[in-house]
Design a protein that fits this description.
Strand content of chain B: 15-25%
Strand content of chain A: 15-25%
Oligomer: heterodimer
Order of helices and strands of chain B: HEEEHEEEE
Shape of chain B: flat
Radius of gyration of chain A: 29 Å
Distance between the termini of chain A: 60 Å
Number of helices of chain B: 2
Largest interface: A-B, 137 and 102 residues
Structural class of chain B: alpha+beta
Strand order of the largest sheet of chain A: 13-12-19-15-16-17-18-14
Shape of chain A: elongated
Helix content of chain A: 10-25%
Number of strands of chain B: 7
Distance between the termini of chain B: 63 Å
Chain lengths: 572, 166
């Protein structure tokens, strides 16, 4: 959501001061270059290093930028299995004014694999591998997609004549792309998120789940109107929910916990305070110009603007001509209908009549109300908002009786969350394929990486997307032993040690990992810290190995081998 | 060298068990012996036991991403005139959804009971850039080659959208 810059400072400060970033993870994410020689990621055209990108050819710079984005994700996620991104620069649909700059998605989805958190639930391949602790698509299975997990395309023609001419990619990795360029790192961060699991196979148009099963993503969707999660719904209910604007929330605990650190307090709203029959909060679309919404809010009586039905606009309520009732509108909130002339014209006519704000009622179905845009708006200073056609009809019917309203930011609600602090998903009406459901609601502020729009103020911050990936199963696991940090009682296990080795003495005993997150060697090493002298240490190891033998984890010979190493060690 | 994982029954059950330990880490310290409970298991490499085709349930739509993959080598390459014509014909046909038969996806059943499906490009999200009249750029993630679909939800208004200035 675009919002006034005065908010920016406070929100950045809040994020900087209030949020202790989660511990960084480690996952190896590799960009697999599938371009042929001489093109795309192998383009040999010389290029000057830019924005921290040291590549000296176009191909190198593209690869460095993509790998940089992959590394940002790799530093945030934990997986012991390499994540492979199949990437290429290819011609994608493009014209001089619009084009596809990138596409991405998982290559495979799986259910009921070893390590799945929920049975009967689809998981993207990279997440399934992480949870299984192994590559579920090893090359020896000779499957079509092999070990690659995500496919990503980027438009090779961006910036060339006929394809967003003179609007080239920015290959710098410093997050400081100039205007009229497209930041490849931010683009890749967004698209890779979809490949890693910010994604659903469910069909929002029909409501059908893929093969009748939910996926890890939809399992966390909840409709506050239907009071059901997506897996609980019928197809018809999901079809309704997919376009139930600002009523579908994310229920994952990690995202909800991160809301106070990532979103700013103050949700834009039109609050009708009277008459009581229509009192309540109504969604608004904000203008890109004029006065901004404040926490204090602006209060006033809503008055219908009247103008001539003429060539400028056929309705007496479209405000396309100078208003005929300035004495009624002055110092009040003008209510006008969308249509025929520009938003700027309507607002200018209302402003000239003395209105303190304008509410524009949409003239076509759709929800939530989009933004108000326009050109040559430098003279427009009053507040203006847009409401849906349905809400406009509700208000219009009561105007004669007197409608009192407040337009402002709700101080008890985060921008982008519902009143309970749960983040809203993007479920506009009409449905938008591959955009609806799999993004955050656009009202979120500060702007988020996974809103449907890539806003210019985005940095390389993974914001709420990282906790969402945690929610769907990318649990933090800093020692990569497959046991979540939250339950790992040996969080610093060295998973590279295959046998129990004590001060160079290799017992030859397999270094078994237990579901407590501790290996056999971790447990032996715990005897070190608790022992006051060597005898105490040897005694502790002896007790431990006796128990391990008793439980059947090691044989008598293996017990003796470990005890032998312990007795030889100079510990403590 | 990686761990030598012991082989015992259901990994999934063990994994769920380990998740259930959340919150216990701060309880009273356990002795080394107490922490030696239930080895984690990684199953041996699986085998494919069955391959089938399942219906692609994504809605048919214009293929915004004009990418051609050689059916033999899997390599991305320029499309042949025949492929381009075919794609354009599909694109035109998709204006009327019933003309576009749904494609199918390969589904694989493994020996451990897990099931995988290979997704095609219809499951990819597309990042679209648009240049507004004032020269500003707007980037939006959506299906390529279309603006929106209008499904008939229970509460959907009956009036079709009108195109208005702004």
């Amino acid at each position: 959501m675009k919002r006034h810059s005065t908010w920016l400072c406070s929100s950045i400060l809040a994020v900087a001061l209030g949020y202790a970033a989660p511990a960084l993870g480690r996952a190896k994410i590799t960009i697999i270059n599938i371009n042929g020689p001489g093109v795309g990621l192998n383009d040999p055209t010389p290029a000057a290093p830019i924005g921290g990108n040291t590549g000296t050819t176009i191909g190198q710079q593209r690869l460095i930028a993509l790998q940089y984005a992959a590394n940002l994700w790799g530093a945030a996620l934990d997986s012991s299995v390499e994540i492979r991104i199949q990437a290429s620069f290819v011609p994608l649909e493009c014209t001089n004014t619009s084009g596809v700059v990138g596409s991405a998605g998982p290559l495979n989805m799986l259910h009921d694999f070893a390590g799945a958190e929920q049975s009967g639930t689809w998981y993207p391949a990279a997440l399934a591998n992480k949870r299984a602790g192994m590559d579920l698509f090893p090359p020896n299975l000779s499957l079509g997609q092999g070990s690659d997990d995500v496919r990503a395309y980027f438009n090779i023609n961006v910036g060339q004549p006929g394809c967003m001419t003179n609007t080239p990619w920015y290959y710098g990795i410093d997050g400081r792309h100039p205007p009229a360029t497209i930041d490849l790192v931010v683009t890749a961060l967004h698209e890779l998120s979809h490949g890693l699991g910010f994604f659903t196979q469910a069909n929002g148009l029909t409501g059908a789940l893929f093969n009748g099963l939910p996926d890890a993503f939809t399992s966390h969707l909840y409709d506050t109107t239907l009071k059901k999660s997506w897996p609980e719904m019928t197809d018809a209910e999901r079809r309704f929910s997919a376009v139930n604007a600002r009523r579908v929330i994310w229920t994952g605990a990690e995202v909800t916990a991160a809301v106070p650190h990532q979103l700013t307090v103050g949700s834009p709203s039109l609050t009708i305070e009277g008459p009581s029959s229509i009192a309540g909060d109504y969604s608004v679309g904000l203008a890109t110009f004029g006065a901004r919404l404040t926490l204090q809010g602006l209060r006033g009586t809503v008055v219908a603007a009247r103008d001539a039905a003429d060539a400028a606009g056929p309705l007496t309520s479209d405000a396309c001509s100078p208003l005929l009732n300035p004495e009624e509108v002055a110092d009040h909130i003008a209510f006008v209908d969308r249509g025929t002339c520009t938003f700027a014209t309507k607002i200018r006519n209302a402003q000239n009549a003395g209105a303190i704000a304008v509410i524009i009622a949409d003239n076509a179905p759709g929800n939530p109300p989009p933004m108000i845009g326009g050109m040559n708006t430098g003279d427009l200073t009053i507040l203006s908002v847009r409401i849906t056609q349905a809400d406009g009809n509700t208000l219009r019917a009561q105007l004669a009786a007197g409608v009192s309203a407040r337009i402002g930011l709700k101080p008890d609600q985060y921008a982008g969350a519902d009143p309970s602090g749960r983040v809203l998903m993007y479920t506009p009406y009409p449905f938008e394929s591959l955009s609806s459901i799999v993004h955050w609601e656009r009202v979120a502020y500060p702007n988020l990486l996974l809103e449907p729009d890539i806003n210019n103020d985005l940095t390389q911050n993974l914001d709420l997307t990282l906790p969402l990936l945690h929610d769907i199963g990318w649990f933090p696991d800093s020692d990569l032993d497959g046991v979540p940090n939250a339950s790992d009682q040996c969080p610093n296990t060295d998973t590279s040690l295959g046998t129990v080795v004590i001060q160079g003495c290799d017992s030859g005993v397999s270094n078994v990992l237990f579901k407590t997150g501790c290996t056999m060697l971790d447990l032996v090493n715990q005897c070190t810290s608790g022992a006051g002298n060597h005898g105490g240490y040897v005694s502790c190891v002896s007790n431990l190995t006796n128990d391990l033998k008793k439980q059947g984890y090691i044989s008598g010979a293996q017990k003796d081998s470990i005890q032998g190493c312990a007795s030889q060690a100079s510990i403590p | 060298m990686r761990h030598c994982w012991l082989k015992i029954a259901s990994v999934s059950a063990l994994f769920m068990g380990s998740l259930g330990l959340a919150g216990m880490a701060l309880a009273k310290p356990k002795s080394p012996s107490e922490l030696a409970k239930d080895p984690v298991v990684r199953t041996a490499p699986r085998k494919v036991v069955r391959q089938t085709q399942v219906q692609n349930t994504q809605p048919p739509r214009a293929p915004g991403v004009r990418v051609y993959r050689d059916p033999d080598t899997g390599e991305i390459r320029e499309g042949t005139p025949e492929e381009t014509q075919k794609l354009e014909a599909q694109r035109q046909g998709n204006v009327t959804p019933t003309l576009a038969p749904p494609s199918s996806l390969r589904q694989i059943t493994f020996s451990d009971g897990s099931v995988a499906v290979e997704l095609d490009d219809s499951y990819m999200t597309h990042l679209i850039v648009e240049r507004a009249a004032d020269g500003t750029l707007h980037m939006r993630c959506k299906a390529a080659g279309e603006t929106s679909h209008t499904p008939p939800p229970a509460a959907a208004p009956a009036t079709p959208p009108r195109i208005e200035m702004e």
